[in-house]
Write a sequence for this structure.
């Protein structure tokens, strides 16, 4: 899994792009968007479990971020800032899912993996609750550290670690269940 950790050169380039984007330079913002799109989409997809909703929420996030980038106080805080916007939008969508269920349809190119195993993981992940999916999506799929994720979710780092640990245990239990069901 690719971590979002940047080199010093990448950080400097991103800071320069943010500075330009804050002055409503659309080209600079487009470069910023291109640099984070995959991580945003992956996070939204795993959090929401629905490709169409993931595309929509990323689009809404980018639109809102472009309109508000002049409010961004620190040029170094772009990634956490845009992920915070995305996280809040995903939370609103998850609340609307209360009585809806979706199959988790993710196009992952993994020729060496067994399709049934991938489906089991998808099904188990989809059965986690909102907070569990958000935490695992940030720390595993988006590559944020526990501390960064805790700041994004406005919680203490220890609380996040505890929830993450329980979520991983729950995911493992659900995965064993999914595998036993698929083997029947």
């Amino acid at each position: 899994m690719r971590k979002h950790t940047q080199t010093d050169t990448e950080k400097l380039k991103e800071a320069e792009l943010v500075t330009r984007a804050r002055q409503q330079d659309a080209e600079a913002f487009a470069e910023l968007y291109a640099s984070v799109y995959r991580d945003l989409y992956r996070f939204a997809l795993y959090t929401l479990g629905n490709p169409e909703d993931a595309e929509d929420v990323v689009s809404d996030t980018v639109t809102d971020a472009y309109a508000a980038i002049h409010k961004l106080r620190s040029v170094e805080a772009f990634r956490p800032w845009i992920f915070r916007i995305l996280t809040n939008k995903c939370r609103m969508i998850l609340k609307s899912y209360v009585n809806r269920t979706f199959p988790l349809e993710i196009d992952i190119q993994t020729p060496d993996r067994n399709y049934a195993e991938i489906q089991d993981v998808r099904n188990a992940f989809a059965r986690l609750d909102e907070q569990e999916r958000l935490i695992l999506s940030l720390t595993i799929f988006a590559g944020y550290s526990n501390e960064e994720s805790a700041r994004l979710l406005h919680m203490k780092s220890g609380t996040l670690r505890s929830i993450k640990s329980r979520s991983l245990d729950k995911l493992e239990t659900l995965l064993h269940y999914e595998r036993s069901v698929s083997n029947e």
Summary: Residues 157-182 form the longest helix (26 residues). The helical segments are 8-22, 26-48, 51-68, 78-96, 115-126, 130-141, 146-152, 157-182. Residues 8-182 form one domain. The two ends are 31 Å apart (CA to CA).
